[in-house]
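3.2 Worked example (two chains)
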Amino acid sequence: MIDFIRKYSLYAAWIIILSGVAGSLYFSLVLHIEPCVLCWYQRIFLYPLAIIIPIGILRKDAGIYIYALPFSIAGAATAFYHYLLYVKIIPEALAPCSASGVSCIQKLPDLFGFFNILQLSLAAFILITVLLFLFKKYENK
């Protein structure tokens, strides 16, 4: 199992990242759902990972997690904050985008009946972070 994690955790993270990039572009370019400020921040943390991870894979860089973890952790924190705003645990007055442009708490379409874009983003960043930590833990063994 350890060999499997060591060998494929970065590939799994990269697949999740590419799915997130493709999904975000689909929602904005095809479905015409305009991203809010927090959505843009999440993209800012996700998109560089689509380049950093494959470079680390190709170079067999055992320290790739050093470069990638700050992006995935910051993305997860932003996605978590955004989700708390969306479900009204954090008051709308603390939303950075309510005054200018698209609201951070706009109603989003549900996927598969119960997942929305914010939940998928949060889950993706958490999975990427876990996979990077697993890679870090088992790479030197």
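3.2.1 Second chain
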Amino acid sequence: MKGFGVLRDKKFFYFYIFVFLSNIGSWIQNIAMSWLALSLKNASFSFSIVSFLNSIPSLIFSIVGGY
């Protein structure tokens, strides 16, 4: 358990927990938006376009953040 020694720091532990909860909220939001688009239009194209548009910021910022 050498790699998890950093979790003993209280501030980092709280940071880790809050980032984890924020990611769960983002996943739920992405699923809810795609489901809403699918239920409103009842077309798989709307589901796929909403899912793609949700992933564009991650694609752009991961490229910029990698430098």
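3.3 Remarks
The mean pLDDT is 85.
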